[in-house]
Design brief:
By secondary structure, the protein is an alpha+beta fold. The protein contains 14 helices and 20 strands.
Length: 428
């Protein structure tokens, strides 16, 4: 056996590199960068293919540019927030937890903070600090970053042999597919990963949007487009009148329906549009119960008995909502405040506490924050992220048929599956 202690450091590096397993990572997003780092840290010679000029293009716009890195919760807390194939992710999340993610980035020099709902952000509130730290780590590990778009995964006798790119071929003992879904196509998530996985024999569950705005046939949305509601409570009922979502926060009326943080969070719970239907109910005054709200209205009327109802309502809701509220109650702006009957007052209170909005479906998947659907997880080993169909093919991140609610859970999936795929590809 050769005595490496007698060799210079450059010879040792070259010798180890020659013996290293060649791994090609397809996709320079969150999962891809983590996979490349994990594989390189475990001795592999890694090439990372990314067609964009900058790594982490989608990562840089998450959390409105702040990057909700993960959620500071335990394994059980992660699992309950992953409605789609959470059990498949148990092994990966056990091996690389939210705490591991936080330690990883803090060790890379990115201080983190925990905000409402255990959401974790960089102290700087800058997503580029996260992507920059990942890129610096890749460079330190001598990962070969190539600006090229992968077009096919080549195999022989059921084993990966190379990755074909638009600019060349890259020999590989293993390939890690981490191309993302089809949301935000401008960031490079064009669905190429689904096509390449299908060409390798994998079943693709039809991709749909999750964390996506909702369409509404209600004309009031168009009348109020651009109106942002803050400090409201949104409740979503299904056709059996069962509550499927309830949360306090912000939302937005648009020309097509509704959007904003509350709506995006709600959309992840609305997964059965083919068989079910949903309706939204907004509590515009969650800080006031009906008795206090009635007392408020009675006081306003007593102080302004001869003013029109539009003036009274202007003190209760945004001016963009005044005409909508009047229309729904069959009232007129000119009606005097002191002419408001008890029945009309009760109807107004009920509307303010239970403002209805009909919804008919989600916006196109291209407008979604994440994708639900993708490579069928039953065809992937959960303990390694390796394909059960092609030896040496690993999958990570949004290309898999997994997704979670908002709050950093989807990025945690990316980090955990990327870490697992990189580690397994290097060691197996």
């Amino acid at each position: 056996m050769r005595n490496w202690n007698r060799c210079g450091p450059d010879i040792i590096f070259l010798a180890r590199q020659k013996m290293s397993k060649k791994i090609v990572v397809i996709g320079g997003g969150a999962a891809g960068m983590m996979a490349a780092i994990s594989a390189a840290e475990h001795g592999a010679e890694v090439t990372l293919l990314e067609p964009n000029e900058r790594l982490g293009k989608k990562l840089n716009i998450t959390g409105k540019g702040r990057c909700n890195v993960t959620n500071d919760t335990d394994l059980d807390g992660l699992m309950v927030n992953i409605p789609r194939n959470g059990k498949f992710l148990y092994s990966a999340l056990s091996r690389f937890s939210a705490r591991d993610t936080m330690s990883f980035f803090e060790e890379l020099g990115v201080p983190l903070k925990v905000e409402r709902g255990n959401r974790v952000f960089p102290v700087s509130d800058c997503a580029f600090d996260i992507s920059g730290a990942l890129k610096h780590r890749l460079q330190k590990l001598r990962v070969n970053i190539v600006r090229d778009r992968a077009v096919a995964i080549q195999s022989a006798d059921g084993c990966v042999t190379a990755v074909q790119g638009e600019k060349g071929n890259y020999a590989a003992d293993a390939a890690i597919l981490a191309t993302g879904g089809v949301s935000y196509p401008g960031t490079g998530s064009t669905g190429d990963g689904y096509r390449m996985a299908a060409e390798c024999g994998h079943t693709i569950i039809e991709p749909r949007g999750s964390l996506v705005p909702l369409q509404s046939p209600d004309a009031c949305c168009v009348q109020m487009q651009g109106l942002a509601l803050r400090n409201v409570e949104l409740t979503v009922f299904n056709k059996k009148n069962k509550v499927v979502f309830r949360e306090f926060g912000e939302m937005l009326f648009t020309h097509f329906g509704v959007s904003g943080p509350l709506v995006l969070s709600a959309s992840a719970h609305l997964r059965n549009w083919e068989k079910d239907s949903y309706r939204l109910v907004i509590d515009l005054k969650p800080a006031l119960d009906e008795q206090k709200l009635e007392a408020r209205i009675l006081r306003d009327v007593a102080e302004n008995p001869n003013k029109g109802l539009d003036k009274i309502l202007g003190g209760l809701v945004h001016r963009s909502m005044v005409n909508v509220v009047l229309s729904k109650l069959s009232l007129t702006a000119e009606q005097k405040a002191n002419a408001l009957t008890r029945e009309q007052r009760r109807a107004l209170i009920d509307l303010l506490k239970h403002f209805p909005v009909a919804v008919s479906g989600t916006r196109p998947v291209a407008e979604a924050i994440v994708t639900t659907g993708g490579v069928k997880v039953g065809e992937v080993q959960p303990s390694t992220m390796e394909s059960k169909l092609v030896h040496g093919l690993y999958l990570a991140g949004e290309v898999l048929d997994v997704d979670a609610y908002t709050g950093g859970f989807n990025l945690q999936i990316a980090w955990a599956t990327g870490h697992q795929a990189g580690l397994s590809a290097a060691e197996n």
